[in-house]
Amino acid sequence: MVKIQKDHFLRAALEIGYSGDNDTLPYDLDASFIKDKAADLASLCFAFFQSVDTGLVGKPTTFMNGLVIVSERLLVPSGPHGFRFTTKIHPFWNLYLNGLGLAIAETNEAQRSARAHSYRLASQGPSFFDRTRSWRAYKLATLNEPDLEAEGAVVIQTDIASFYEHIYHHRLENIVKDLASESTLAMQIDRILNKLAAGRSFGLPVGGQCARILAEVMMTPIDRSLTDAGLIWHRYVDDYTLICRSQQEAYKALSELSHALADYGLSLNRSKTTFLSAKHYRDFISVQLGEADDSSLALRELDLHFDPYSDNASAEYEKLKQSFEKIDVSFLLNLEREKSQPDSFVLAQIGRALKFQEPAVAVQLCATLLNPNNLDSFRASWSKIMRGVYAVRSNNQFASIFAALDDLLDQIPAASGHLLIPEANMLHFLRAIRFVRTDRRGAFVRRTYDSTTSFSVRRACIDCWRHWADRSNFTRLRNQWQNLGAEEQRMLWLAAGAFGDEGQKTRSQLRGSLAQAWRLGIETDTVTDTSDTFAACYEDWVKHAI
Predict the structure, then answer these.
(1) % of the chain surpassing 90 pLDDT
(2) pTM score, two decimals?
(3) What is the 3-state secondary structure (H, E, C) of 265-283?
Protein backbone atom coordinates (compact mmCIF):
# COMPACT_ATOMS: atom_id res chain seq x y z
CA MET A 1 0.00 0.00 0.00
CA VAL A 2 1.35 3.44 -0.96
CA LYS A 3 2.13 5.67 2.00
CA ILE A 4 3.08 9.25 1.13
CA GLN A 5 5.88 10.64 3.28
CA LYS A 6 7.81 13.91 3.36
CA ASP A 7 10.97 12.04 2.33
CA HIS A 8 9.40 11.23 -1.04
CA PHE A 9 9.19 14.93 -1.85
CA LEU A 10 12.66 15.57 -0.43
CA ARG A 11 14.24 12.91 -2.64
CA ALA A 12 12.24 14.22 -5.60
CA ALA A 13 13.57 17.74 -4.97
CA LEU A 14 17.17 16.53 -4.86
CA GLU A 15 16.65 14.52 -8.04
CA ILE A 16 15.29 17.57 -9.87
CA GLY A 17 18.27 19.59 -8.66
CA TYR A 18 20.59 16.88 -9.95
CA SER A 19 19.09 16.17 -13.38
CA GLY A 20 16.71 19.05 -14.12
CA ASP A 21 12.94 19.10 -14.33
CA ASN A 22 12.65 18.02 -17.97
CA ASP A 23 15.16 15.91 -19.88
CA THR A 24 14.35 17.42 -23.30
CA LEU A 25 14.95 21.03 -22.22
CA PRO A 26 18.05 22.81 -20.91
CA TYR A 27 18.64 22.88 -17.16
CA ASP A 28 16.36 25.53 -15.70
CA LEU A 29 17.17 27.83 -12.78
CA ASP A 30 14.01 26.57 -11.09
CA ALA A 31 15.78 23.23 -10.66
CA SER A 32 18.48 24.96 -8.60
CA PHE A 33 15.77 26.68 -6.58
CA ILE A 34 14.08 23.35 -5.85
CA LYS A 35 17.38 21.76 -4.81
CA ASP A 36 18.43 24.65 -2.56
CA LYS A 37 15.00 24.87 -0.91
CA ALA A 38 14.39 21.12 -0.91
CA ALA A 39 13.48 20.82 2.77
CA ASP A 40 11.05 23.76 2.76
CA LEU A 41 9.36 22.73 -0.49
CA ALA A 42 9.12 19.09 0.63
CA SER A 43 7.33 20.25 3.78
CA LEU A 44 4.99 22.37 1.69
CA CYS A 45 4.20 19.44 -0.63
CA PHE A 46 3.63 17.02 2.23
CA ALA A 47 1.38 19.47 4.09
CA PHE A 48 -0.64 20.02 0.92
CA PHE A 49 -1.09 16.30 0.33
CA GLN A 50 -2.25 15.73 3.88
CA SER A 51 -4.71 18.63 3.73
CA VAL A 52 -6.33 17.22 0.60
CA ASP A 53 -6.17 13.61 1.73
CA THR A 54 -7.81 14.34 5.09
CA GLY A 55 -10.42 16.70 3.66
CA LEU A 56 -9.17 19.80 5.48
CA VAL A 57 -9.64 21.78 2.25
CA GLY A 58 -13.19 20.54 1.81
CA LYS A 59 -14.31 17.89 -0.64
CA PRO A 60 -11.00 16.68 -2.19
CA THR A 61 -12.27 16.29 -5.76
CA THR A 62 -13.94 19.69 -5.75
CA PHE A 63 -10.79 21.33 -4.39
CA MET A 64 -8.51 19.67 -6.97
CA ASN A 65 -10.88 20.61 -9.78
CA GLY A 66 -10.65 24.24 -8.72
CA LEU A 67 -6.87 24.48 -8.95
CA VAL A 68 -5.06 26.21 -11.79
CA ILE A 69 -1.88 24.27 -12.65
CA VAL A 70 0.49 26.24 -14.86
CA SER A 71 2.23 24.34 -17.63
CA GLU A 72 3.29 24.88 -21.22
CA ARG A 73 3.55 22.56 -24.19
CA LEU A 74 6.78 23.09 -26.13
CA LEU A 75 7.68 21.75 -29.55
CA VAL A 76 10.68 19.39 -29.72
CA PRO A 77 12.26 17.85 -32.84
CA SER A 78 11.83 14.09 -33.08
CA GLY A 79 14.06 12.47 -35.67
CA PRO A 80 15.16 14.29 -38.83
CA HIS A 81 11.66 15.28 -39.96
CA GLY A 82 9.15 14.93 -37.12
CA PHE A 83 8.17 16.81 -33.97
CA ARG A 84 6.63 16.01 -30.62
CA PHE A 85 5.60 18.02 -27.59
CA THR A 86 7.19 18.17 -24.19
CA THR A 87 5.56 19.72 -21.12
CA LYS A 88 7.14 22.38 -18.95
CA ILE A 89 5.36 22.20 -15.59
CA HIS A 90 5.34 24.82 -12.84
CA PRO A 91 8.18 23.90 -10.42
CA PHE A 92 5.91 23.25 -7.44
CA TRP A 93 3.58 20.96 -9.35
CA ASN A 94 6.47 19.19 -11.03
CA LEU A 95 7.97 18.49 -7.62
CA TYR A 96 4.62 17.44 -6.20
CA LEU A 97 3.97 15.01 -9.07
CA ASN A 98 7.46 13.53 -8.84
CA GLY A 99 7.14 13.00 -5.10
CA LEU A 100 3.81 11.21 -5.55
CA GLY A 101 5.32 9.22 -8.42
CA LEU A 102 8.26 8.09 -6.31
CA ALA A 103 5.94 6.79 -3.60
CA ILE A 104 3.92 4.91 -6.22
CA ALA A 105 7.07 3.46 -7.78
CA GLU A 106 8.27 2.10 -4.45
CA THR A 107 5.06 0.11 -4.04
CA ASN A 108 4.75 -0.92 -7.68
CA GLU A 109 8.36 -2.06 -8.09
CA ALA A 110 7.78 -5.37 -6.32
CA GLN A 111 4.93 -6.16 -8.73
CA ARG A 112 6.96 -5.56 -11.88
CA SER A 113 8.32 -8.42 -13.96
CA ALA A 114 12.07 -8.89 -14.34
CA ARG A 115 11.38 -8.79 -18.09
CA ALA A 116 10.39 -5.12 -17.84
CA HIS A 117 13.76 -3.38 -18.10
CA SER A 118 12.89 0.33 -18.25
CA TYR A 119 13.01 2.75 -15.34
CA ARG A 120 13.68 0.29 -12.56
CA LEU A 121 13.76 2.11 -9.25
CA ALA A 122 17.18 2.70 -7.70
CA SER A 123 17.52 2.07 -3.98
CA GLN A 124 19.02 5.50 -3.38
CA GLY A 125 19.51 8.82 -5.15
CA PRO A 126 20.17 11.22 -6.55
CA SER A 127 18.63 9.58 -9.63
CA PHE A 128 15.30 7.78 -9.31
CA PHE A 129 16.35 5.01 -11.66
CA ASP A 130 18.98 2.29 -11.89
CA ARG A 131 21.34 3.30 -14.70
CA THR A 132 22.49 -0.31 -15.23
CA ARG A 133 19.00 -1.22 -16.45
CA SER A 134 19.57 0.37 -19.84
CA TRP A 135 18.22 -0.19 -23.34
CA ARG A 136 21.47 -2.04 -24.09
CA ALA A 137 20.92 -4.36 -21.11
CA TYR A 138 17.39 -5.00 -22.39
CA LYS A 139 18.66 -6.10 -25.79
CA LEU A 140 21.39 -8.26 -24.30
CA ALA A 141 18.79 -9.97 -22.10
CA THR A 142 16.80 -11.00 -25.17
CA LEU A 143 19.88 -12.74 -26.59
CA ASN A 144 20.12 -14.93 -23.48
CA GLU A 145 16.70 -16.52 -23.90
CA PRO A 146 16.98 -20.34 -24.38
CA ASP A 147 14.10 -20.37 -26.89
CA LEU A 148 16.26 -18.32 -29.23
CA GLU A 149 18.28 -21.50 -29.84
CA ALA A 150 15.29 -23.50 -31.03
CA GLU A 151 15.30 -24.52 -34.68
CA GLY A 152 12.91 -22.23 -36.54
CA ALA A 153 12.80 -19.67 -33.68
CA VAL A 154 11.20 -16.35 -34.60
CA VAL A 155 11.67 -12.97 -32.92
CA ILE A 156 9.07 -10.20 -33.06
CA GLN A 157 10.16 -6.60 -32.60
CA THR A 158 7.35 -4.11 -32.14
CA ASP A 159 6.34 -1.04 -30.19
CA ILE A 160 3.24 0.72 -28.90
CA ALA A 161 1.83 3.44 -31.14
CA SER A 162 2.04 6.95 -29.60
CA PHE A 163 2.45 5.40 -26.17
CA TYR A 164 2.43 8.39 -23.79
CA GLU A 165 -0.19 10.25 -25.83
CA HIS A 166 -2.69 7.37 -25.65
CA ILE A 167 -2.52 6.48 -21.96
CA TYR A 168 -6.07 6.87 -20.64
CA HIS A 169 -6.20 8.68 -17.31
CA HIS A 170 -9.14 6.79 -15.83
CA ARG A 171 -7.60 3.37 -16.47
CA LEU A 172 -4.38 4.63 -14.91
CA GLU A 173 -6.36 6.01 -11.98
CA ASN A 174 -7.86 2.57 -11.36
CA ILE A 175 -4.43 0.93 -11.36
CA VAL A 176 -3.05 3.51 -8.93
CA LYS A 177 -6.14 3.07 -6.78
CA ASP A 178 -5.29 -0.63 -6.48
CA LEU A 179 -2.00 0.46 -4.93
CA ALA A 180 -3.53 3.15 -2.68
CA SER A 181 -7.16 2.27 -2.13
CA GLU A 182 -7.54 4.20 1.13
CA SER A 183 -6.12 7.47 -0.16
CA THR A 184 -7.02 10.31 -2.53
CA LEU A 185 -3.69 9.71 -4.29
CA ALA A 186 -5.23 8.22 -7.45
CA MET A 187 -7.77 11.01 -7.71
CA GLN A 188 -5.12 13.68 -7.24
CA ILE A 189 -2.94 12.17 -9.96
CA ASP A 190 -5.93 11.96 -12.30
CA ARG A 191 -7.00 15.57 -11.71
CA ILE A 192 -3.47 16.96 -12.18
CA LEU A 193 -2.95 14.97 -15.38
CA ASN A 194 -6.31 16.17 -16.66
CA LYS A 195 -5.29 19.79 -16.16
CA LEU A 196 -1.88 19.24 -17.78
CA ALA A 197 -3.72 17.71 -20.76
CA ALA A 198 -6.00 20.77 -21.08
CA GLY A 199 -9.09 18.85 -19.95
CA ARG A 200 -8.51 15.75 -22.07
CA SER A 201 -8.69 12.35 -20.39
CA PHE A 202 -5.57 10.92 -21.98
CA GLY A 203 -1.88 11.63 -22.36
CA LEU A 204 1.12 11.89 -20.03
CA PRO A 205 3.34 14.99 -19.92
CA VAL A 206 6.55 14.06 -21.73
CA GLY A 207 9.88 14.99 -20.16
CA GLY A 208 9.44 14.51 -16.41
CA GLN A 209 10.14 11.58 -14.12
CA CYS A 210 6.58 11.09 -12.87
CA ALA A 211 5.35 10.41 -16.41
CA ARG A 212 7.93 7.62 -16.74
CA ILE A 213 6.81 6.09 -13.46
CA LEU A 214 3.12 6.29 -14.35
CA ALA A 215 3.76 4.75 -17.76
CA GLU A 216 5.46 1.78 -16.09
CA VAL A 217 2.58 1.51 -13.61
CA MET A 218 0.18 1.38 -16.55
CA MET A 219 2.20 -1.39 -18.20
CA THR A 220 2.53 -3.59 -15.10
CA PRO A 221 -0.84 -5.42 -15.46
CA ILE A 222 -0.28 -5.72 -19.21
CA ASP A 223 3.12 -7.30 -18.65
CA ARG A 224 1.59 -9.67 -16.10
CA SER A 225 -1.05 -10.71 -18.64
CA LEU A 226 1.68 -11.65 -21.14
CA THR A 227 3.47 -13.75 -18.54
CA ASP A 228 0.22 -15.49 -17.59
CA ALA A 229 -0.30 -16.32 -21.27
CA GLY A 230 3.07 -18.09 -21.35
CA LEU A 231 4.81 -15.63 -23.68
CA ILE A 232 8.57 -15.06 -23.66
CA TRP A 233 8.77 -11.28 -23.80
CA HIS A 234 11.00 -8.38 -22.88
CA ARG A 235 10.04 -4.71 -22.75
CA TYR A 236 11.80 -1.34 -22.60
CA VAL A 237 9.28 1.51 -22.26
CA ASP A 238 7.13 1.01 -25.38
CA ASP A 239 9.43 -1.45 -27.19
CA TYR A 240 8.56 -5.15 -27.01
CA THR A 241 10.62 -8.15 -28.08
CA LEU A 242 8.78 -11.48 -28.25
CA ILE A 243 10.76 -14.72 -28.67
CA CYS A 244 8.84 -17.64 -30.13
CA ARG A 245 9.72 -21.20 -31.14
CA SER A 246 7.97 -21.06 -34.51
CA GLN A 247 6.18 -18.82 -36.98
CA GLN A 248 2.84 -20.13 -35.72
CA GLU A 249 3.71 -19.30 -32.09
CA ALA A 250 4.85 -15.86 -33.19
CA TYR A 251 1.53 -15.07 -34.81
CA LYS A 252 -0.31 -16.23 -31.70
CA ALA A 253 2.01 -14.24 -29.42
CA LEU A 254 1.46 -11.05 -31.39
CA SER A 255 -2.28 -11.61 -31.13
CA GLU A 256 -2.03 -12.02 -27.35
CA LEU A 257 0.00 -8.81 -27.05
CA SER A 258 -2.47 -6.90 -29.21
CA HIS A 259 -5.40 -8.04 -27.04
CA ALA A 260 -3.56 -7.21 -23.80
CA LEU A 261 -2.82 -3.69 -25.01
CA ALA A 262 -6.32 -3.15 -26.39
CA ASP A 263 -7.77 -3.85 -22.94
CA TYR A 264 -6.10 -0.60 -21.83
CA GLY A 265 -6.78 1.46 -24.94
CA LEU A 266 -3.35 0.92 -26.50
CA SER A 267 -2.32 -0.57 -29.83
CA LEU A 268 0.79 -1.70 -31.69
CA ASN A 269 2.63 0.33 -34.28
CA ARG A 270 2.08 -1.78 -37.38
CA SER A 271 4.78 -0.02 -39.39
CA LYS A 272 7.40 -0.96 -36.77
CA THR A 273 6.37 -4.59 -36.25
CA THR A 274 8.89 -7.03 -37.75
CA PHE A 275 9.37 -10.82 -37.72
CA LEU A 276 12.99 -12.00 -37.79
CA SER A 277 14.66 -15.37 -37.73
CA ALA A 278 16.89 -15.96 -34.71
CA LYS A 279 20.03 -15.54 -36.84
CA HIS A 280 18.83 -12.33 -38.44
CA TYR A 281 17.82 -11.00 -35.04
CA ARG A 282 21.29 -11.68 -33.60
CA ASP A 283 22.91 -9.97 -36.56
CA PHE A 284 20.55 -7.02 -36.29
CA ILE A 285 21.20 -6.56 -32.57
CA SER A 286 24.93 -6.86 -33.16
CA VAL A 287 24.72 -3.83 -35.45
CA GLN A 288 22.42 -1.93 -33.07
CA LEU A 289 24.80 -2.48 -30.16
CA GLY A 290 27.80 -1.44 -32.22
CA GLU A 291 29.45 -4.86 -32.24
CA ALA A 292 29.91 -4.90 -36.00
CA ASP A 293 32.95 -3.53 -37.82
CA ASP A 294 32.20 0.12 -37.14
CA SER A 295 34.75 2.92 -36.80
CA SER A 296 32.49 4.56 -34.20
CA LEU A 297 32.40 1.48 -31.96
CA ALA A 298 34.65 2.94 -29.25
CA LEU A 299 32.58 6.10 -29.07
CA ARG A 300 29.32 4.12 -28.99
CA GLU A 301 30.51 1.99 -26.09
CA LEU A 302 31.91 4.87 -24.05
CA ASP A 303 29.71 5.89 -21.14
CA LEU A 304 29.94 9.67 -21.17
CA HIS A 305 28.01 10.18 -17.97
CA PHE A 306 29.94 12.53 -15.70
CA ASP A 307 28.50 13.07 -12.27
CA PRO A 308 29.51 16.52 -10.93
CA TYR A 309 28.23 15.54 -7.49
CA SER A 310 30.42 12.46 -7.24
CA ASP A 311 32.91 12.29 -4.37
CA ASN A 312 35.55 11.59 -6.99
CA ALA A 313 34.28 13.82 -9.77
CA SER A 314 37.63 15.23 -10.91
CA ALA A 315 39.18 11.78 -11.14
CA GLU A 316 36.21 10.53 -13.15
CA TYR A 317 36.53 13.52 -15.47
CA GLU A 318 40.22 12.86 -16.09
CA LYS A 319 39.55 9.18 -16.73
CA LEU A 320 36.93 10.02 -19.36
CA LYS A 321 39.22 12.61 -20.90
CA GLN A 322 42.01 10.05 -21.25
CA SER A 323 39.60 7.68 -22.99
CA PHE A 324 39.44 10.06 -25.96
CA GLU A 325 43.14 9.81 -26.66
CA LYS A 326 42.35 6.64 -28.64
CA ILE A 327 39.27 8.04 -30.41
CA ASP A 328 39.52 10.33 -33.41
CA VAL A 329 36.31 12.28 -32.83
CA SER A 330 37.01 14.67 -35.73
CA PHE A 331 37.29 11.75 -38.14
CA LEU A 332 34.01 10.27 -36.90
CA LEU A 333 32.23 13.61 -37.24
CA ASN A 334 33.44 13.96 -40.82
CA LEU A 335 32.05 10.49 -41.57
CA GLU A 336 28.65 11.52 -40.24
CA ARG A 337 28.76 14.71 -42.28
CA GLU A 338 29.05 12.69 -45.47
CA LYS A 339 26.00 10.54 -44.71
CA SER A 340 22.59 11.34 -46.20
CA GLN A 341 21.10 10.56 -42.78
CA PRO A 342 23.61 11.00 -39.94
CA ASP A 343 23.55 8.63 -36.98
CA SER A 344 21.84 10.63 -34.22
CA PHE A 345 23.40 8.50 -31.46
CA VAL A 346 26.95 9.08 -32.73
CA LEU A 347 26.24 12.82 -33.03
CA ALA A 348 24.83 12.80 -29.49
CA GLN A 349 28.02 11.15 -28.23
CA ILE A 350 30.15 13.70 -30.09
CA GLY A 351 28.12 16.51 -28.51
CA ARG A 352 28.69 14.99 -25.07
CA ALA A 353 32.37 14.51 -25.87
CA LEU A 354 33.12 18.16 -26.68
CA LYS A 355 33.99 19.08 -23.10
CA PHE A 356 36.62 16.32 -22.96
CA GLN A 357 38.61 17.65 -25.95
CA GLU A 358 41.54 20.01 -26.01
CA PRO A 359 40.44 23.58 -26.91
CA ALA A 360 41.93 23.46 -30.41
CA VAL A 361 40.06 20.23 -31.19
CA ALA A 362 36.85 21.39 -29.52
CA VAL A 363 36.63 24.55 -31.62
CA GLN A 364 37.20 22.58 -34.83
CA LEU A 365 34.43 20.17 -33.88
CA CYS A 366 32.09 23.04 -33.00
CA ALA A 367 32.87 24.73 -36.32
CA THR A 368 31.84 21.54 -38.14
CA LEU A 369 28.75 20.98 -36.02
CA LEU A 370 27.53 24.59 -36.28
CA ASN A 371 28.37 25.11 -39.94
CA PRO A 372 25.08 26.04 -41.66
CA ASN A 373 25.77 23.49 -44.39
CA ASN A 374 25.94 20.73 -41.77
CA LEU A 375 23.60 21.96 -39.05
CA ASP A 376 20.47 21.30 -41.07
CA SER A 377 21.54 17.67 -41.59
CA PHE A 378 22.30 17.42 -37.87
CA ARG A 379 18.97 19.00 -36.80
CA ALA A 380 17.71 15.83 -35.09
CA SER A 381 20.64 16.15 -32.66
CA TRP A 382 20.24 19.87 -31.98
CA SER A 383 19.75 19.56 -28.23
CA LYS A 384 22.80 17.33 -27.76
CA ILE A 385 24.95 19.62 -29.90
CA MET A 386 23.84 22.72 -28.01
CA ARG A 387 24.33 21.03 -24.65
CA GLY A 388 27.88 20.20 -25.75
CA VAL A 389 28.56 23.75 -26.95
CA TYR A 390 27.18 25.13 -23.69
CA ALA A 391 29.42 22.79 -21.67
CA VAL A 392 32.45 24.16 -23.50
CA ARG A 393 31.37 27.82 -23.41
CA SER A 394 30.68 27.68 -19.66
CA ASN A 395 34.09 26.19 -18.82
CA ASN A 396 36.94 28.67 -18.35
CA GLN A 397 39.44 25.99 -19.41
CA PHE A 398 38.21 26.78 -22.95
CA ALA A 399 38.54 30.59 -22.60
CA SER A 400 40.97 30.73 -25.53
CA ILE A 401 38.20 29.67 -27.95
CA PHE A 402 35.28 31.63 -26.50
CA ALA A 403 35.48 34.36 -29.15
CA ALA A 404 35.45 31.80 -31.96
CA LEU A 405 32.51 29.96 -30.39
CA ASP A 406 30.56 33.19 -29.96
CA ASP A 407 31.09 34.06 -33.61
CA LEU A 408 29.81 30.62 -34.69
CA LEU A 409 26.72 31.00 -32.51
CA ASP A 410 26.01 34.51 -33.76
CA GLN A 411 25.74 33.23 -37.33
CA ILE A 412 22.95 30.75 -36.55
CA PRO A 413 19.87 33.04 -36.53
CA ALA A 414 20.60 34.39 -40.01
CA ALA A 415 21.87 31.18 -41.58
CA SER A 416 19.74 28.54 -39.82
CA GLY A 417 16.89 30.52 -38.29
CA HIS A 418 14.30 27.87 -39.19
CA LEU A 419 15.93 25.50 -36.69
CA LEU A 420 15.00 27.92 -33.89
CA ILE A 421 11.26 27.63 -34.56
CA PRO A 422 10.69 24.72 -32.11
CA GLU A 423 10.62 26.26 -28.64
CA ALA A 424 12.92 23.61 -27.18
CA ASN A 425 15.58 24.46 -29.78
CA MET A 426 15.26 28.15 -28.99
CA LEU A 427 15.72 27.49 -25.26
CA HIS A 428 18.94 25.57 -25.88
CA PHE A 429 20.23 28.34 -28.15
CA LEU A 430 19.40 31.15 -25.71
CA ARG A 431 21.21 29.31 -22.96
CA ALA A 432 24.32 29.02 -25.15
CA ILE A 433 24.45 32.75 -25.98
CA ARG A 434 23.72 34.22 -22.56
CA PHE A 435 27.40 34.52 -21.54
CA VAL A 436 28.16 37.72 -23.39
CA ARG A 437 26.18 40.36 -25.26
CA THR A 438 26.88 41.28 -28.84
CA ASP A 439 24.86 43.69 -30.98
CA ARG A 440 23.48 40.79 -33.01
CA ARG A 441 22.47 38.92 -29.87
CA GLY A 442 20.92 41.99 -28.30
CA ALA A 443 18.69 42.56 -31.31
CA PHE A 444 17.89 38.86 -31.64
CA VAL A 445 16.86 38.38 -28.00
CA ARG A 446 14.73 41.55 -28.00
CA ARG A 447 13.01 40.47 -31.21
CA THR A 448 12.47 36.97 -29.83
CA TYR A 449 10.97 38.21 -26.56
CA ASP A 450 8.58 40.58 -28.31
CA SER A 451 7.37 38.01 -30.85
CA THR A 452 7.09 34.75 -28.89
CA THR A 453 3.96 33.50 -27.15
CA SER A 454 5.95 31.07 -24.99
CA PHE A 455 6.50 32.09 -21.38
CA SER A 456 9.42 29.66 -21.18
CA VAL A 457 11.17 31.40 -24.08
CA ARG A 458 10.45 34.82 -22.56
CA ARG A 459 11.98 33.64 -19.28
CA ALA A 460 15.09 32.56 -21.17
CA CYS A 461 15.30 36.00 -22.81
CA ILE A 462 15.09 37.67 -19.39
CA ASP A 463 17.85 35.35 -18.19
CA CYS A 464 20.04 36.57 -21.05
CA TRP A 465 19.40 40.17 -19.97
CA ARG A 466 20.23 39.18 -16.39
CA HIS A 467 23.61 37.78 -17.44
CA TRP A 468 24.31 40.81 -19.63
CA ALA A 469 23.16 43.29 -16.95
CA ASP A 470 21.02 44.85 -19.69
CA ARG A 471 19.51 47.75 -17.78
CA SER A 472 17.32 49.10 -20.59
CA ASN A 473 15.41 45.86 -20.99
CA PHE A 474 15.19 45.34 -17.24
CA THR A 475 13.67 48.80 -16.82
CA ARG A 476 11.27 48.21 -19.70
CA LEU A 477 9.95 44.99 -18.14
CA ARG A 478 9.89 46.39 -14.62
CA ASN A 479 7.48 49.04 -15.90
CA GLN A 480 5.28 46.29 -17.33
CA TRP A 481 5.31 44.16 -14.15
CA GLN A 482 1.52 43.93 -13.81
CA ASN A 483 1.23 42.67 -17.39
CA LEU A 484 3.81 39.91 -16.99
CA GLY A 485 2.91 36.33 -16.22
CA ALA A 486 3.97 34.87 -12.87
CA GLU A 487 6.75 32.83 -14.48
CA GLU A 488 8.27 35.92 -16.11
CA GLN A 489 7.87 37.86 -12.88
CA ARG A 490 9.86 35.26 -10.97
CA MET A 491 12.72 35.46 -13.47
CA LEU A 492 12.65 39.26 -13.45
CA TRP A 493 12.68 39.22 -9.65
CA LEU A 494 15.84 37.14 -9.78
CA ALA A 495 17.33 39.38 -12.49
CA ALA A 496 16.84 42.45 -10.29
CA GLY A 497 19.91 41.37 -8.34
CA ALA A 498 22.10 42.33 -11.30
CA PHE A 499 21.01 45.99 -11.24
CA GLY A 500 22.25 47.39 -7.93
CA ASP A 501 20.15 50.07 -6.26
CA GLU A 502 17.55 50.03 -9.02
CA GLY A 503 17.07 46.31 -8.55
CA GLN A 504 16.80 46.68 -4.77
CA LYS A 505 14.22 49.45 -5.09
CA THR A 506 12.26 47.38 -7.59
CA ARG A 507 12.06 44.48 -5.17
CA SER A 508 11.11 46.77 -2.32
CA GLN A 509 8.31 48.38 -4.34
CA LEU A 510 6.89 45.13 -5.69
CA ARG A 511 7.35 42.82 -2.69
CA GLY A 512 3.81 43.36 -1.46
CA SER A 513 2.36 41.92 -4.67
CA LEU A 514 4.22 38.60 -4.58
CA ALA A 515 1.90 36.64 -2.29
CA GLN A 516 -1.02 37.28 -4.62
CA ALA A 517 0.84 37.30 -7.96
CA TRP A 518 2.57 33.97 -7.32
CA ARG A 519 -0.36 32.33 -5.56
CA LEU A 520 -0.88 28.63 -6.38
CA GLY A 521 -4.36 28.23 -4.96
CA ILE A 522 -3.18 26.03 -2.09
CA GLU A 523 -2.45 28.90 0.29
CA THR A 524 -5.19 28.42 2.86
CA ASP A 525 -4.98 28.52 6.64
CA THR A 526 -5.40 24.77 6.75
CA VAL A 527 -2.45 24.19 4.43
CA THR A 528 0.16 26.71 5.43
CA ASP A 529 0.64 30.14 6.92
CA THR A 530 1.66 33.18 4.88
CA SER A 531 5.34 32.86 5.85
CA ASP A 532 5.56 29.33 4.46
CA THR A 533 4.33 29.49 0.89
CA PHE A 534 5.83 28.84 -2.52
CA ALA A 535 6.15 32.60 -3.04
CA ALA A 536 7.93 33.01 0.31
CA CYS A 537 10.30 30.13 -0.47
CA TYR A 538 11.22 31.66 -3.82
CA GLU A 539 11.70 35.15 -2.39
CA ASP A 540 13.98 33.76 0.33
CA TRP A 541 15.97 31.74 -2.21
CA VAL A 542 16.58 34.78 -4.42
CA LYS A 543 18.20 36.59 -1.47
CA HIS A 544 21.08 34.10 -1.61
CA ALA A 545 21.05 33.19 -5.32
CA ILE A 546 24.03 34.13 -7.46
Answers:
(1) 76
(2) 0.91
(3) CCCECHHHCEEEEHHHHHH
